[in-house]
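pinned: reference chain
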Amino acid sequence: MDHCEDLADELDAHPDGDPGPLSRALAKLRLAFEVHNKFEEELLKPILAARDPHAGIRVERMVDDHVHEHAAIRAKLGSPATSALREVVETLRAHLDAEERYLVTPQVLHEPANPRA
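pinned: its structure tokens
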């Protein structure tokens, strides 16, 4: 994300410059985002469901909201405008911070209670 922002700054400072490096960096960012999403969406539902087996509807809604948020970010990553890039990078950073704050918590990550103990 930082590299994309740096390249956008360079392109804004020199509008006649080559947009190729920024386009390639954006392609790498889109790919990294897709890999992150695939990994996350495969794991999110089972992790949450394992921690709260009676919350099926709530877990479905959370996963659905998360998938829609990813789709909105993905759409913004398709824009070639440097202003749109800055906006989506800000959104991505906020999204990742929120994931760490709300999904990587002791309540989500703790080992399930052993019913035989």
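why pinned: The chain is about 80% helix and 0% strand. Residues 20-51 form the longest helix (32 residues).
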